[in-house]
Amino acid sequence: MEDLLAVGLVDVEILNEVEKFIAAHGLLEELSDAGDYELLTPIARPGAIYALGRNYPAHAREQGANVPTEPILFGKAVTSVIGPDDDVVYKNGLTRVDPEAELAVVIGRYGENISEEEAMNYVAGYTALNDVTARDLQKALTERSHPWFLSKGIDTFCPIGPCITLPDEVGEPVELDVKMYVNGELRQNDNTRSMTFSIPFLISWISQYFALHPGDIIATGTPEGIAPVQVGDVMEVHVEKIGVLKNRVVAEE
User: Fold this and answer.
1) Percent of the chain scored above 90 by pLDDT?
2) Residue 122, class by beta-carbon neighbours within 10 Å (0-12 exposed, 13-18 middle, 19+ buried)?
3) Beta bridge partners of 247
4) Could you give the CA distance from residue 23 to residue 26 in angstroms, rounded to a whole number?
5) How many CB atoms are closer than 10 A to CB 99?
6) Cis bond upstream, residue 173 (ω within 30)
7) DSSP secondary structure letters along 139-164
8) What is the Cα–Cα distance from 164 to 158, expressed in whole angstroms?
9) Class of domain 2-251 as given by CATH
10) Count of alpha carbons within 13 Å of 128, Cβ hemisphere only?
């Protein structure tokens, strides 16, 4: 997928032509009968993961913080990415790990100093992301005025998937329900229309500081309802028009 993005082949018009070719040659049934397969993360190694903190007002308030007047930006390690049905490892020594359901934007074109008016032209598509967070570590780091990178970037702490949904299937403005279920229980439930900073604004704002490349990911923030998970729990991120991203929590061996 990263190679396809790099050469501009993840494009609505091009993929529509591929879909027509498959239908015209009767290949759909053949592809459907291809046998068992493992669904991998759509972006295995993004160039960068830019993530937003407290971008939903209710989530900011539940953390005892003010609604930000400018984006709170942090990064997640690209090595933390895993796919659907992969396990999230609860590392020894941690005492609280929280899942966070998010809509993620996949960048499709190189750009810097992008205007808000042009921002959506740089979107290849959308996917679901779980911004798993070592909350105990994050709290300790914050108290020492250290960045969040360590608590957010631990290996396996960034499930992504199950697919990339193209912009024409989502439409504008992007208003999608985002939910988190743990063991079937609904914990988070909001819509991206609640975000403080919109997707066009975020793309434009980030590109003033960092050149965006095909395959980069912007995680747009999480709704209120954060709570810890334990070993054995099953987390499900549900994002409207994208699907379900499911991962189990396991103990570190």
Assistant:
1) 82
2) buried
3) 235
4) 5
5) 28
6) yes
7) HHHHHTT--SHHHH-STT-EEEEEEE
8) 16
9) alpha beta
10) 27
Q: Are 178 and 103 in contact (CB under 8 A)?
A: yes
The beta strands (E) that lie in the chain are given as: 49-53, 72-75, 81-82, 87-90, 97-98, 101-107, 123-130, 133-134, 158-165, 177-182, 185-191, 217-219, 234-239, 243-251
Tokens at 81, concatenated: 């990415």
Cα torsion angle, 50, 55, 59, 60, sign: positive
Question: Six-digit token pair at 57?
Answer: 């007002």
**CA dist., res. 70 & res. 130, Å (int):** 23
Cβ–Cβ < 8 Å for 130, 159? yes
Supply the Cα-derived Rg of the chain in whole angstroms: 18
The residue extents of the domains of the chain are 2-251
CA–CA separation, 197 and 160 (whole Å): 22
Q: Which two tokens stand for residue 132?
A: 């798993």
The residue type found at 36 is: D
How many whole angstroms separate alpha carbon 32 and alpha carbon 84?
Answer: 19
CA-CA-CA-CA torsion sign (71, 73, 78, 80): negative
Six-digit token pair at 201?
Answer: 């604004």
**CA angle centred on 245, ends 74 and 108, rounded to 5°:** 55
For 104, the token pair is 């993620």
Which pLDDT belongs to residue 17?
A: 84
pLDDT tens for residues 202-227? 999 999 999 999 999 999 999 999 99
Read off the pTM: 0.93
The DSSP line for 96-135 is: -EE--EEEEEEE-S-BSS--TTTGGGGEEEEEEEE--EEH
